């Protein structure tokens, strides 16, 4: 089967590792794939000798990667893009391009519902789970959109949250007359049976010299590692670290590994906004900032292998990939409670309130002062990683995608 992959995810920055998860998953599936995009080949697919410019249906650019060696990036009718909005392009162009290029199945990791018989990953479920974080009416609009998509009997919607699936229309075929907040839900039992819940996917655990990694990132000392987009409460991590240092005199360090767009204004790198915040920070001598532009977006995972604990505290978390990554990397995790991972991670993480430095500091202190508790977290993480390892979940993805 030759897959048609919605390239939108790789054209837009994904601040939670979702693009990384999707790419490693497709690598593991090993199916031939053509990526359909609205612009030039993204940098993620560019390589020496590969074209990163505009590509047409007639002359697709070749991309690289393990299973991607047979993949292509197509930009269908670039001139048309200036005349119609993206949604119009998708609905008018995708089915025709798939027919012309002999592509078998549309897979969208971005929630686009533009081709019949597709597999649509719905990650952006915050309007369903946490309505207070979304504009009014967003949950109803989401239900209406996917109810319409599921009118096609070959379409399946794939989610990472059981609770979100229940609010949208569950995978057991039971009808929902109304959602818990009173809005309309999918009431067609046959359509509801094509809403499925899948776990996040993380590849095999790397083999690493943890002492060498600790020396590289922590100057030979223990360190907490914070990661997330630059808009996701890095200041909270710094405030929590201040409280930790004032209450527990130690040589502990803090390493900040931002993923997202710059916060320091135009022309700055993603780490520069944080560097500006460090200028007046009392414990700045104990803080290191990793610049993703210089070290790569995956560097935080390497740093996590030597970390005393990982801090991941966004306002909301809709994937659970970082939770599974921490478990696989055998790193204790302090994470926001507002996460889909609470549905399956149980006590394998220390859950804290988002936007609450005091809560984060208490968790840091508990891990530091109670080594037995930290060991229990590590043990629970290993059990979670074993239960949700790549060999355990890949067949579930194969069942739906290929």
Automatic annotation (TrEMBL):
Domain of life of the source: Bacteria
UniProt keyword terms in alphabetical order: Transferase
One biological process term in Gene Ontology: lipopolysaccharide biosynthetic process
Keyword 4Fe-4S: no
Keyword Transferase recorded: yes
GO molecular function list: glycosyltransferase activity
Stated name of the protein: Glycosyltransferase involved in cell wall biosynthesis
Organism of provenance: Dinghuibacter silviterrae
